[in-house]
């Protein structure tokens, strides 16, 4: 029993010693080359090392600059989608196992050539947004050393295209330059694994090309929703709207804004998912979302707007909100300005009425209380002139005594006329 036990122990020791022995280092790979397909697809290829051990199953260890994105695989090629704005290098080595701790061969490096041209002439802030899964809009700013009359051209490619296409719809918005192109063929495919490759340059070759890769799961901006109906029930406001086309309800998040005219406040409600379950909702509810706003006063004017964005259930990006929908209002407008105006106008109206009343008070008194006729006054008016003349002559004596005698000369007018002739 002791001898077999010693034999087993010796066999285990030999196995451990063999396992601990370092793996033989293989020769480096040969004929490492690099090429670019489409716009931003970089492909490295190589041949197996010469003089490799026949007992070694070759695996290839590779990584990019700064030992990023390490990979161990049996294939003699590797590809990567990467913007070619800078030089990209890949290092490749061979080894006999899939362990990263194994000593690979001497690493061989191959880099892509850097873009030609002045780096300060390349466009900046190149950004692309996929609008409503229908078209993509890219914008950029001219480079610092670019000529103001530069004619820019945008090229794009994605997996559904057989070739690289040129964007024709170039436009300018203030300092930004942009271009938009249709992108609808991917909505029914597995676009989560795809991206759009973008390159902007000029036809004259005076500026440095600029590249960008837009994943189709990010930078997605939906169209605004459409509000279909608002109604009150049990002190709550129910909102019914229709989602933008090309989107599933589970892939969207919502923001409902309610503006109350009395409080002059904007209440914001975040809605992740809301299905129409109330019997009051009408029509075809497919693609329709419903939400209840609690405790809303029906005797005030309430204005509702809605916007949407993609969520992380279906997309990687959830930061791009759509534009606000067209506003819809319900309730009565209790604008305090009207009441304030009436409050200020009432004293003015009352004061004006009092002034008019005072001006016509005498007239109103005569109309309301007419004077009683005086018969004596009538006779007085009939004989008033004669009585006045009689009284006037009674003041003087007809036989008034002459107090002084006056003598006047008499001139014969006829004689004077004849003398003058």
TrEMBL record:
Q: Which GO terms describe its molecular function?
A: cytokine receptor activity
Q: Which residues form the Type I cytokine receptor cytokine-binding domain?
A: 125-218
Q: Would you indicate the residue range of the signal peptide?
A: 1-25
* One Pfam family linked to the record: IL6Ra-bind
- Membrane-topology descriptor: Single-pass type I membrane protein
**Under which name does UniProt file this protein?**
Interleukin-13 receptor subunit alpha-1
Ranges annotated as spanning the membrane? 338-361
Indicate yes or no for the key word Ribosomal protein.
Answer: no
Assigned protein family: Belongs to the type I cytokine receptor family. Type 5 subfamily.
In which compartments does the protein localize? Answer: Membrane
On the tree of life, the source organism's domain of life is Eukaryota
User: SUPFAM superfamilies in the record, alphabetically?
Assistant: Fibronectin type III
Cellular component per GO? external side of plasma membrane
- Residue limits of the Interleukin-13 receptor subunit alpha-1 Ig-like domain? 26-119
Q: List, alphabetically, the InterPro entries matched.
A: FN3_sf (IPR036116), Ig-like_fold (IPR013783), Il13Ra_Ig (IPR040566), Short_hematopoietin_rcpt_2_CS (IPR003532), TypeI_recpt_CBD (IPR015321)
Tell me how this protein assembles. Interleukin-13 receptor is a complex of IL4R, IL13RA1, and possibly other components. Interacts with TRAF3IP1. Interacts with IL4.
What this chain does, per the entry, is described as: Binds with low affinity to interleukin-13 (IL13). Together with IL4RA can form a functional receptor for IL13. Also serves as an alternate accessory protein to the common cytokine receptor gamma chain for interleukin-4 (IL4) signaling, but cannot replace the function of IL2RG in allowing enhanced interleukin-2 (IL2) binding activity.
């Amino acid at each position: 029993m002791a001898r077999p036990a010693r034999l087993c122990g010796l066999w285990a020791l030999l196995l451990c010693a063999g396992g601990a022995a370092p793996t033989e280092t293989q020769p480096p790979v040969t004929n490492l080359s690099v090429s670019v397909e489409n716009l931003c697809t970089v492909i490295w290829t190589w041949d197996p090392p010469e003089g490799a051990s026949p007992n070694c199953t070759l695996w290839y260890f590779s990584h990019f600059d700064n030992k990023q994105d390490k990979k161990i695989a049996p294939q003699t090629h590797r590809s990567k989608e990467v913007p070619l704005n800078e030089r990209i290098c890949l290092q490749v080595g061979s080894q006999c196992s899939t362990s990263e701790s194994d000593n690979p061969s001497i690493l061989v490096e191959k880099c892509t050539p850097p873009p030609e041209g002045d780096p300060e002439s390349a466009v900046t802030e190149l950004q692309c947004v996929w609008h409503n899964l229908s078209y993509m809009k890219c914008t950029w700013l001219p480079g610092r050393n670019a000529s103001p009359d530069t004619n820019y051209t945008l090229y794009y490619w994605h997996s559904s295209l057989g070739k690289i296409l040129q964007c024709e719809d170039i436009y300018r918005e203030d300092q930004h330059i942009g271009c938009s192109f249709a992108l609808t063929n991917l909505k029914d495919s597995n676009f989560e694994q795809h991206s759009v490759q973008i390159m902007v340059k000029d036809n004259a070759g005076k500026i440095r090309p600029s590249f960008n890769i837009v994943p189709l799961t990010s930078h997605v901006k939906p169209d605004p929703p459409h509000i279909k109906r608002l109604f009150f029930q049990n002190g709550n406001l129910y909102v019914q709207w229709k989602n933008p086309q090309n989107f599933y309800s589970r892939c969207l998040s919502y923001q409902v804004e309610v503006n109350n005219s009395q409080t002059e406040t904007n209440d914001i409600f975040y809605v992740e998912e809301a299905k129409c379950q109330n019997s009051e909702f009408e029509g075809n509810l497919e693609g329709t979302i419903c939400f209840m706003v609690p405790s809303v006063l029906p005797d005030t004017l309430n204005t509702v707007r809605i916007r949407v964005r993609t969520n992380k259930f279906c997309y990687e990006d959830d930061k791009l909100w759509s534009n606000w929908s067209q506003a819809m209002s319900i309730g009565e407008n209790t604008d305090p300005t009207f009441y304030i105006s009436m409050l200020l106008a009432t004293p003015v109206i009352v004061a004006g009425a009092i002034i008019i009343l005072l001006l016509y008070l005498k007239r109103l008194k005569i109309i309301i209380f007419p004077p009683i006729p005086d018969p004596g006054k009538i006779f007085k008016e009939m004989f008033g002139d004669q009585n006045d003349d009689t009284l006037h002559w009674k003041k003087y004596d007809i036989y008034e005594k002459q107090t002084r005698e006056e003598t006047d000369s008499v001139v014969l007018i006829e004689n004077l006329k004849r003398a003058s002739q």
